[in-house]
Design goal:
Length: 311
């Protein structure tokens, strides 16, 4: 069982990762490589220093919250000079995601099925929940209007009018690649517990090593994708989102096919979620989690129907 006292260091590490990614964005580094680079450097550093233990997931979760675009979350306040409101909000957000990560881990130990253990995108969804709660509480305190209602028909019609099918297509391709290429590159037998020692894959390594692999993929692949004209940004984000799908650790009859389908669906969820939550950190992880959960649920229902109708 996780405890707050024994894991308080994870709160600090998650908060640090969040602040570093926010800081890199202020220096002009795009969010995807900023998240990957921050997670990679921090985990390597703490591993060399032999402190922090299995701190990788906490660091990655914090880096996802740091991908937030603060002007979208907290608009500039009339009569307030400088960046003080955003600095204070960044500090609050960093603490919120650290506490949110720790609470999620405690609940996951106690209720593994209810907390969707093994579903890819869970760390990002945790960062999203912490970011959203922090944003709404801050807006409420500052008297900034809060919009929590579903998109109106007018907003949906505007979104559809501005939808680029080519952008969506590139997004789907990048997400699919991110969902399956890590598996192809690291081996096929990824979900066996216990696993043969001779097989190598990121799913058989420590928590820190797994996170380092995902962070490296985000930085080394997501960064160059940004150089592609017009569609580079959406492809980099979708690639990173797809790698979250690839981290799904469920017993599946056809894991590659499952993750390919989930990677195909994730950009659709991302496109829908952006209508209301643009700029919220963890949005990529939430879209990945929803796609994995949807495909998993459809598979269970389909198998149940087939068994009921079988002669």
């Amino acid at each position: 069982m996780q405890s707050i006292g024994a894991n308080s260091f994870n709160i600090l590490l998650s908060a640090l990762a969040c602040l570093l990614v926010l800081g890199l964005q202020q220096l002009g580094v795009p969010p995807v490589p900023a998240s990957g680079l921050t997670a990679l450097v921090l985990i390597v550093a703490f591993s060399i220093l032999k402190i922090g233990g299995a701190c990788g997931p906490a660091i990655l979760c914090g880096s996802f919250a740091g991908m937030s675009f603060l002007p979208d979350l907290i608009p500039a306040l009339n009569g307030v000079q400088g960046n003080l409101p955003w600095i204070l909000f960044a500090l609050l957000l960093s603490v919120a995601v650290g506490v949110g990560y720790l609470l999620t881990q405690i609940l996951s130990d106690k209720f593994p099925r209810g907390m969707l253990n093994g579903f890819g995108g869970k760390l990002g969804a945790t960062a999203f929940a912490a970011t959203l709660l922090c944003t709404y509480l801050t807006r409420l305190f500052l008297g900034i209007p809060i919009s929590i209602h579903p998109p109106t028909l007018n907003e949906v019609s505007i979104l559809l009018a501005n939808l680029s099918l080519s952008d969506l297509g590139f997004s789907i391709l990048a997400s699919m690649a991110g969902a399956v290429l890590p598996i192809v590159l690291t081996g096929k037998e990824l979900l066996l517990i216990p696993v043969p020692v001779r097989q190598k894959s990121i799913y058989q390594l420590t928590a820190n090593s797994k996170v380092m692999g995902i962070a490296l993929l985000g930085f080394a692949v997501g960064g160059p994708l940004l150089l592609i004209p017009q569609v580079g940004q959406i492809m980099a984000a979708s690639w990173y989102m797809g790698t979250f799908v690839s981290m799904t650790a469920l017993s599946l009859p056809a894991p590659n096919r499952f993750k390919l389908l989930a990677g195909t669906l994730a950009p659709i969820f991302l496109w829908i979620l952006q209508t209301r939550f643009h700029g919220t950190g963890g949005l990529l992880g939430l879209a990945a989690l929803l796609s994995v959960f949807t495909i998993y649920t459809v598979g269970i229902v389909g198998n149940f129907v087939l068994r009921r109708t079988a002669p």
